[in-house]
Amino acid sequence: MSQFLLVLVSGVASGAVYGLMGLGLVIIYRATDVVNFAMASLATLGLYVALSLHDRGVATLLGVLAAVVITVTAGLVVREAVIRPLGQGQLFSALVVTMGVSLIAESVAGSIWGNQPKSFPNLIDGSVRWSGAALPVQSLLTIAVAAVAMALVGYLFTRTTLGSAMRAAAESADTARVVGLSSQRLARISWALGLGLAALSACLYAPRSGLVPTALVAPLFRAFAGIFLGGLTSMYGAVVGGLTIGVLDNMAANYISASFRDTFVFSFTVLVLLIRPQGMFGTRTFQRV
Amino acid sequence: MFRTTRRYRRAAGSLAVLAAVALTANACAGQDSAGATGGSSSEIHIGAWLPLTGATATYGVAEKVGADAYFKMVNAQGGINGRKIKWTVKDNAADPQQTVQIARELVGQDKVVAIVNANGTSQAEAAFPFVLNQSKVPVLNEVGGAENWYEPPRPGLFGTQTLYEDQAAAVASWAVQDGAKKILVVHSDPAAFVNVAKQVEPVAKKVDPSVRVDRLAVKYQTTDYTPVISKVKADKPDAVIVILTSPEAAAYLKEAKLQGLSLPTYAYAPVAAESTIALAKDAAEGLKAVQLVKAPSDPDPAVKEFRTAMAKYEPGQDAGFLALWGWSNAKVFAEIAKTIKGPVTSQALTAAYQKASSVDPGVSPVMKFSAGDHLGTRSVQRVVVKKGVWTSVGDFYTPPARD
Amino acid sequence: MVFNRSLLARAALGPAAGAVLMVFMASGAIPAYQMYSVGLAAVYAVVVLSVGLLAGWSGIWSVGHPAFFAIGAYFAAYGSGHDWPLEAVILGAVATGAALGAFLGYAGARFSVLYIALLTLAFTMVTLELINRWSSVTGGDQGVPVLQLRSGLGLGTVLGGSTEAQYLAVGAAAVVLALAVPAAASGLRMRLVAAKSHPLAARTIGIAPEAQSSLSFAVSGACTCFAGVLLGLLTGFVSPDPFSLNFGISLIAACVLGGVGTILGAVAGGIYLTWNPSLSSAVGLPQPVVQGIVLIAVLLFLPGGVVPFLAKPARTLLRRVPRRPHAETPADPSPNQAPAPTGGPVLLNLEHVSVSYGGLKALEDASLTLRQNEILAVIGPNGAGKTTLLNALSGLTGNGRVSGTADFAGRPLLKARATARRRMGIGRTFQHAEVFSELTVAENVLCTRRRITPRRRAEVARLLHSVGLADVADRRPAELPFGLQKRLDLARAMAEEPQLLVLDEPFGGLDAGERALLAGHIRRLHADGTAVVVIDHVLDDLFSVAHRVLAFDFGRTIGEGTPDTVLQDPEVRSSYLGSVEGRTRPPEHTGGRSMVRLHGVGHAYGGVVALRDVDLDVRQGVVLGIAGANGAGKSTLAGILHGSLAPTHGNRETAGALRTSLAPEGRALFKTLSLRENLEVAAYAAGITGAPLRARLEETMQWLPPRLRDRMSAPAGGLSGGEQQMLAIARALIVSPDILIVDEPALGLAPALVDEVYDRLSGLARDGLTVVLLEQLLSRALSVCHEVAVLHEGVVAVHGRPGDPAFEALAEAAYFNGGPTLAPGTAATAQTSQVN
After folding, report:
1. B130 shares its domain with B142
2. How many domains are there within chain C?
3. Residue of C245, C226, C222, C244 whose CA lies nearest to C234
4. Do B168 and B154 belong to one domain?
5. C330 preceded by a cis bond (ω within 30 of 0)
6. Looking at the partner chain, which of C253, C669, C673 has a beta carbon nearest the beta carbon of A164?
7. Distance between CA B312 and CA B322 in Å, rounded?
8. Whole-complex ipTM
9. Using a CB-CB distance cutoff of 8 angstroms, which residues of chain A are in contact with residue C291?
10. pLDDT band at residue C822 using 50, 70 and 90 as cut-offs
11. Which InterPro entries would you find in this protein's record (chain C) (predicted)?
12. Claim to verify: residue B93 and residue B132 sit in the same structural domain
């Protein structure tokens, strides 16, 4: 039983990271129609900066803040420099451009900070004992921080006028223009928010995995699976999908077969999608002539 | 406005195409000029493919730095019998196809006399048909390799790296000698790890027939070791042998410490790296492992020479285990090349290797080659993490023979 | 498929180039160390071709091709280890690739582009995991050698990694590329591209997108598996390393670089993939950086790829001669007015057909009969259910529920799939000319056929000539003006000589000359024995071709008659003009200072002129009505008055800093947002925040009817049409506008609700707000406005005061005929005596 609990908690902790990252992806996708493949590698740049600061004796919390700021800045620069010139509605081109950005960012990180794995500090040390099992406080913190971040995002989108405006622009860019909303400004805010969430999730993930330039590729793929599972346009879907993937992944590794966990997770996702092509929470669009 | 944007785009497009053409032309030109300098009698031109980008860049970059330091030092001291060593390294991004392309360029265009100190098992294997069989150019001191490379010996293929299987044997006998009766092997799941993990049981039983050995497979590149540790706990072993990559081993150690699991833990050479300590921090304390070389911190004069040369020729680079591998391989090559009287050709190198019955690089075990044995050594160095530093324990050790 | 000479010549280019290359290789002109790379480039070219054609022709971007590539390579390795003949290995690999591809394509047809990417990603990950684990066959990560493959037909033995393998790779790639050339000219490609670029329109010409994507993925997968076998032989060793997701990304990069869907582009892509490492080392940058830069630069500066970019100037040069496509007029259409049919056999019989979407009934209990040799016009105001009727006929009702019965030529119609209706003999056109943008004009018509013979080509050429498109047959539709696109849409519908042609607003967006031409075509079709159902808002043109007219409103039939009589039906007339019993006219009001003034304003969308030469003056305190039939240009004018749409001609002047507010046509609420949020967002957009926002919100809520005030937290999507309209107006009001512009507030509302909305609008006007009302129903406009301008085909036909006794007749004439033709004498006075 205690093993089940351990597996469950660490699955939820991983799932919280995927969910947070997926939330960032969904926010950016809804606002600008860009599937931001470069999000993970931009967050990696932020992590390296945070680590450098930490090595110079800066408090970890400030480091996390720096990671968020760097990631957001890099993301906004990328958007203005190479995504916006593509024009509206270039779904595939934008995706491929972000792939290109991701290749460059990972390589640059490698050449500046080296390819050797580095350790990323825990935000908090220690563990909690519970019936023979030790839960790392870091895992619990991960879950808590992710939950708070998600709640804040939820508050922003449902309780504030800015959030309403962002939802409005995501629902219909044309109507938003008629009403007079500045779509560029909202798009920038969405990118900043999405990348900020990515950086935060990276800071939660890195202590466990260590830091190499490609450290965040694996959680990014899991986050992708999560948002497809949940429905590309649904923020709840991103969170629920990420959590599902995290828990499923751990359960599959532990109770089915460690060797076939990718097969299991992705087959499950594809099966769900074959039954519900729009994902669990996605909405179906109807084309009319 | 719209028109001008389009015109601008077209202009930029033309420019991009032109630039690409120019670069490609430049690339070809560059290759030609490189080709002209091959085969000179004042230098020994050798080459290598290394993963300088991609997933295994860690190995390639560090290895290159170590070997570069050695070759620079030797060249500064006048070279080998008056000949300077020119070592051409190309990035293969760990891709077999690129490796074949590089091999053909090195052999066909740069006219290297040998491939020395390259990296990758399957990558090298893809290049063997051309390099070894067709061109008769030797492949020397490759990092990686498998048992079937040396049994039977292949013409022109010589290795300096104790096989992973022998490393497993050394770890197994070490654990049993320390008194373990029930050993659990935690290993990653790709075949390269499985094959190594399988070697533990027979050797352990050979040393002490009453030992029990179990195996636990973990998905490659797992970061969450919580479930693994609880399984290890449930198994209640006396000792654990980890056949994992360095980051995986670090994740294992951290989680083990967190869950209060303190068992004697042994590992094979890839784990005995600085990155394991960097990642696991104090959870790595007391970890035992075997290595191909002495610890870089060793007071041995040969290792000291390495540290000095690194500081001088590759300042700012880590003088760690991986760099020392590169250094050691370069040194073995140079020591054997020294024995050649006359021009250093592919044939001469092959012959010299077969006659090199005892080469002592100092930092690694004495290499003993012969016509029937193309693998220089089966020995390892035992190392332990003490106060956050890998430290050599005793002298080189040869594990009991495997069946 | 037809092999004309030029096609054969182009198809021979591949093998010819391959042969030349092989001669070079044999003669030693290509250095030995580059031989492997040449072979590798050939293999990569095949893979890039597979990925690129799948993307270019079917719109499927696959990252699953590394897996297919791997499967082929491991087939070679396994076959070599078990002494299979070469042919068996190739056959096995190709069959496996085709089967897996067909499955992925079939499953993927249900998904959008991004979901297919995930599906194929999952396929790659699962395949790689299996390869790594199944080490008894694959050797796991250690890899397996490919020693040799012997031909079962006695054609010799290919050693792994040998020179013969290099020749084999080049030769095989040349053959595959050569096969791709006729495939590119075949009906298959056209149908694939048609299904990709407009799935819905494709269904109406009998193309089922699912089958197409399954087929193309199967072919693509098979080719890639074949390339995998070649790779195994070429390298002589197979391990999992090369088949990574990174390789999938590189493949996409190579496709994009060369030009998606072009054969030469695939070769360029293969070359790029092969020599990218050399390029990187020459530039001195790491491989991923070069790859990333190339990817971004190409997408930004050469979105079409390098090959099309270089080919374009060449093609323009060749095409200097026919410069203006517009000049041609088609062969003179046949007689002016077809004889009215005299009771031919019944072709189509609809009984009690209803279509509903969720709770909304788009078509209710429609019944009609159509005889062969008859042209039936269906009229009705916007939202009356006309297009839904056409969609029910052509099977494009989506997820709507269809009930009732319909017989077409004696067979039940409603149960037939959309793709089957083309075969039954029904063709249709679309309001916006939904042509296949990625095919040429000729291909747009050719793709209606599965097999393309010289006879078909000749037929299509004749057809295009008859509609006046012969000169532009090789152009893409996007290069043509809208009128020609509509002709193309018509030609495509006519291609298989259907028994019934369904035309959706064929006159909309055309100028007078084009409309006359079109009317001629419709008459000629009729003369050739085709029955026609046509809907449109341009009544005069419609009536000039129709034999019989059916009037619709609120999803049901309200009247029927000949073109001469139908408008005399009061119900039909009022559905257009409205009826206004019991509403009191507002008092005369000339208005204060000028708020917004338009001078010579015109607007065009692409080539379509929506508005021309409009002069308008909106005065303070006035309710200005702009009446016009659908398509007259009202919404365009609303956007220009609002300021959110910049006119292409003329200028707009405002009296100082002015806040205008628009309640757009169709309400355009944010349906997922609550009522309160809809209001807040509008205020936020105008820069009102904090306490002022709360105050404005409070005030605006008071304006709303109580039943809405109680539901401020409910999502706006759940409101009824009238309530939504109320909210839309409130959303426009919350910013305290100086001018309120309301576009078609009564659209789709029940009469009682229309009254409520208008009462509230009148209330606002009484309080002194300046209001511009855009209205489809003339009488309604006349009843509530101080001034009314009638818009007809983008021109203000008359402008005057409802109080003026002569104005009503004048306005009515202008509404239907564009000018006061009924009373030409009064026209001048009316035009000049407008407002002061």
Report:
1. yes
2. 3
3. C226
4. no
5. no
6. C673
7. 18
8. 0.89
9. 100, 103
10. very low
11. AAA+_ATPase, ABC_transp_permease, ABC_transporter-like_ATP-bd, ABC_transporter-like_CS, BCA_ABC_TP_C, BCAA_Transport_ATP-bd_LivF, LivM-like, P-loop_NTPase
12. yes
Confidence band, pLDDT 50/70/90 cuts, at residue A289: very low
CB C770, CB C595: distance < 8 Å: yes
Q: Partners for A (CB, 8 Å, 3+ pairs)?
A: B, C
Domain region containing A94: 20-216
Is the predicted pLDDT of residue C391 greater than 90, yes or no? no
User: C637 and C566 share a domain?
Assistant: no
Q: Are residues B147 and B191 in the same domain?
A: no
Cα–Cα distances in Å, from C529 out to A55, A269, C1, C347, C501? Answer: 86, 54, 30, 12, 11
- State whether B54 and C161 contact (CB < 8 Å): no
* Domain-located, residue A231: no
Q: Is the pLDDT of residue B31 over 50?
A: no
What does the block give as tokens for C95? 């069959």
The verdict on B96 and B245 lying in the same domain is: no
Torsion angle of C-alpha atoms A272, A277, A283, A289, degrees rounded to 10:
-170
Tell me which residue in C33, C160, C288 faces B104 most closely, judged by beta carbons: C33
Give pLDDT tens digits for A107-144. 999 889 988 888 888 888 777 877 767 788 888 899 99
Distance from CA of A224 to the nearest CA of C (A): 8
What strand order describes the sheet that includes C401-408?
A: C360-371, C346-357, C401-408, C411-412
Q: Which residues form the domain of B349?
A: 43-162+299-372
Q: Which of residues 135-164 of A touch B (CB under 8 A)?
A: 136
Average pLDDT over every residue of C340-348: 72
| Residue C586: per-residue pLDDT | 67
Residue B25 has pLDDT above 70, yes or no: no
What residue numbers bound the domain in which C818 lies? 594-832
Domains contained in chain B, number: 2
Do B94 and B179 belong together in one domain?
Answer: no
Q: Are B251 and A253 within 8 A, CB to CB?
A: no
pLDDT band at C770 (very low <50, low <70, confident <90, very high): very high
Of the candidates C520, C550, C576, which is a domain's last residue?
C576
Nearest Cα residue in chain C from A172: C670
Higher-confidence residue of B325 and C383: namely: B325
Assigned domain for B155 exists: yes
C338-352, C394-408, C724-738: segment of lowest average pLDDT:
C338-352
Q: Do A92 and C107 make contact, defined as CB atoms within 8 angstroms?
A: no
Shared domain for C123 and C163, answered yes or no, is: yes
Band of residue C319 on the pLDDT scale cut at 50, 70, 90: low
Helices (H) and strands (E) in chain A, counts: 11, 2
Structure tokens at B143: 């990092």
The model carries a pTM of 0.83
CA A65 vs CA A43, A59, A68, A155, C212: distances in Å: 12, 10, 5, 21, 51
Residue C342: phi and psi, rounded to 5, are: -115, 75
- Please give the pLDDT value at position C772: 93
What is the CATH number for B343?
A: 3.40.50.2300
Residue B75: predicted pLDDT: 95
Residue C622 CA to residue A198 CA, distance in Å, equals 54
Nearest CA in chain A to C731: A179
Show residues of chain B in contact with A208, CB under 8 Å.
223-224, 251
Distances (CA, A) of A189 to A38, C670, C826: 17, 20, 59
Looking at the structure, do residues C600 and C572 belong to the same domain, yes or no?
A: no
Q: Closest Cα of chain A to C825: distance in Å?
A: 42
How long a stretch of residues is chain B? 403
The total of structural domains in chain A comes to 1
For residue B287 the two structure tokens come to 């970890």
Domain contains B122: yes
Same domain, B147 and B177: no
> Residue C126: its chain A contacts at CB < 8 A?
262-263, 266-267
Q: Which residue of C has its CA nearest to B30?
A: C282
Residues C794 and C828 in one domain: yes
CATH number at C698 reads 3.40.50.300
How much is the average pLDDT of C9-36? 77
